[in-house]
Amino acid sequence: MRTQIGIIGAGPAGLLLSHLLHLAGIDSVVLEARSRAYVEERVRAGLLEQGSVDTLTEAGVGERLHRQGLAHHGIELRFDGVGHRIPLTELTGKVVTIYGQQEVVKDLIAARLAAGTLSGNPPILFEVADVAVHDVTSDSPRISFTHEGRAQVLDCLFIGGCDGFHGICRGAIPPEIIRTYDRIYPFAWLGILAHSKPVSEELIYARHSDGFALATMRSETVTRMYLQCTPDEDLSLWPDDRIWAELHKRLGCGPELQEGPIFQKGVTAMRSYVVEPMRHGRLFLAGDAAHIVPPTGAKGMNLAIADIRVLARGLERFFANNDATLLEDYSKICLRRIWKGQRFSWWMTSMLHRFDGDDAFEHRVQVAELDYVATSRAAMTTLAENYVGLDYEV
Ligand SMILES: Cc1cc2nc3c(=O)[nH]c(=O)nc-3n(C[C@H](O)[C@H](O)[C@H](O)COP(=O)(O)OP(=O)(O)OC[C@H]3O[C@@H](n4cnc5c(N)ncnc54)[C@H](O)[C@@H]3O)c2cc1C
After folding, report:
1. Which of 72, 208, 280, 353 does the annotation list as catalytic?
2. CATH code of the domain in which 140 resides
3. What is the reported pLDDT for 205?
4. Distance (Å) from CA 13 to ligand 1 centroid
5. Burial of residue 376, with CB atoms counted within 10 A of its CB: 0-12 exposed, 13-18 middle, 19 or more buried
6. Is the beta carbon of 301 within 6 A of some atom in ligand 1?
7. What is the pTM of this model?
8. What would the pLDDT profile of 254-304 be if each residue is shown by its tens digit?
9. Of 39, 177, 256, 293, which cross-links 345 as Cys (Cβ 3.0–4.6 Å)?
10. Which domain range does residue 339 map to?
11. CATH number assigned to the domain comprising residue 205
């Protein structure tokens, strides 16, 4: 099988890359380890920066997003039992949009399957196994894999390594070339999805002496809530009643916090991780394959989309004008945004979570920082412009 760009991973990064390339007349094939049903139901991120919405809209896959997404104009910081609104739109002119990552994935899969490929290859192969990349420093890299029990090879000109944090692409870059930056936080998030009316129209980020809590939503009838917990938290010790009681306490809510049937529970680890560079020969890493952020800043999916904008444009220029300059700068341009996203996610995490071992002085400083952000227009603008998404370089 032959294509121009072989893409590994049908998450937001791989699918968007394939879609943008198709719009530019460039052929690609996406190889995905899981089934279509699995990737379309995988609940993860749910908040899109303004730039991500614009990117999806310009690419022609924003119709359902605009119909079903919830545009938010502010968020609330809650500490010492009092709420303080950060008016995102008033401060930046932009909004954030609540729209589940699995919905973005569904829209992109539908678009790719409807459009097909120029080469006649299937645009996406699901449930592939034994994926490996070869000759990535040559002009003709290859991807070997197994599909429906048959060993196959995909010959291509470039490879998009969009296979997430646990994929194989990052490991294909020799250790002497790659540098890793890693921080594992001493806590995690216990997340739930429940059939209940969201506690507020906007997100609430709450600092409490017993730990952080976040009230968000997926729709007007589905609530998404998070509680700071330990990384090895035993979910069997968290019956629904205990979760609701803890949410009431940490969010400081009364009857406006409506309880409902919880239909999903999980623990999300908190990690900051970056590899540099994001390119080796003709293999380009994008999204979670190259970087992970703690979810406090809601940047994971948005950074993946930002990487893909640069990569798709770089490939477009290469094929249209034989101009490789943007591809040469891919890593540098992406990493500038990624590190700002890392800084913001780390800062939000540090400001809002309880760190075991912190003393009374550190608690006071944490509250003073929140108080400063909630009362200084300069400080809240800093938070707001990072939260809605910094302008793209490319
Ligand atoms: C619980 C949770 C909550 C999150 N919340 C937020 C949030 O609120 N806001 C936010 O912005 N981000 C959030 N994130 C992060 C966000 O989901 C990721 O940043 C995003 O999924 C990155 O997209 P991606 O396409 O790079 O990787 P992925 O979505 O991980 O996609 C990678 C794909 O590659 C496939 N794959 C892996 N290995 C192989 C292989 N060997 N061969 C073929 N295919 C392979 C995988 O099956 C997967 O489909 C959250 C993540 C988690 C886990």
Report:
1. 72
2. 3.50.50.60
3. 98
4. 8
5. exposed
6. yes
7. 0.96
8. 888 999 999 999 999 999 999 999 999 999 999 999 999 999 999 999 999
9. 293
10. 5-44+101-181+271-347
11. 3.30.9.10
